[in-house]
Specification:
alpha+beta; Deoxyribonuclease I, Chain A; six-stranded mixed sheet; Endonuclease/Exonuclease/phosphatase family protein; exonuclease activity; endonuclease activity
Amino acid sequence: MLLLAAPLGAEPLRLAYFHSELERDGPGLLLRDILRDEDAQVAAVLAVIEAAEADVLVLSGVDWDAGGLALAALNAALARPYPHLFTARPNAGRPTGRDLDGNGRLAEARDAQGYGRFTGAGGMGVLSRYGFSTVQDFSSLLWEDLPGNLMPDGDPGLGVQRLSSMVHWVLPVEVRGRRLHLGIFHATPPVFDGPEDRNGRRNHDEILFWVRLLDGALPGALPDPFVILGGANLDGDRSEGRRAAIRALLQDRRLQETRPMRPGRAEVPLATVDWPAPGPGQMRVDYLLPSAGLKVIDSGVLWPEGEAPLARQVAQASRHRLIWLDLRWP
């Protein structure tokens, strides 16, 4: 846990990120399950959201639709719905017209801009107590146009493949007369490919994007104060993947690396996901990284233990755990 002296001023702002894993196998099915009010996973996700009591919550794993109906229905099912919602079409399931996986067939999930059986599969949204300003959407940036990218030579996606497997957004939130910029993303897993390591390279570059944006090497900006939050799908210390980009981001002096620790074990950072066997187990792959000038009051992972009802709901909701951060301006 990172704990600084509490400054004077307004109440802390709580930010949270949660990869809900609510995605379904086809368009409209998530909305159906929410409206039926009898789906156990949906009920568990709602319980997790309510327990976090976040002022601004970024959700991933929520299927996108053109009217934002699924996100709105999920919000309406909360005991205390959020007044402000944001979502936009992600790259998941968006056709490329190319045979990206080289299997001789087109228009399959692996041929899309981001893996997805349909447009918007497992998208992202924001629920907020505060209003938004105009988003900067970088999701159309081509992978090959990222400075220093690792896109393989001769890749079948040259000229068409976007960097973002899901999204890269900079969303300004208006908080009590002040503006906080949220850098939002969800990177592709760095596995499920062959020796060309295409997914590993793309995962690296989706994380590297934030460093390049802060460097001024891309059109647009991530103005201070900011918080980068989302799913990197990569642990900086363990398992497969190219770790240079996540380590560079975590060590960047323009931001703070919040590392909530296990109680009584200061050397062990909390995991944010549990991929059971034969998966890699517990890892830290989800991040909330505030800019250096923000005052961090507390941070943590919503992962209760034991047989309490909330502990069972957290385990039923998703393999990922909600992460949260309390901060104030200096």
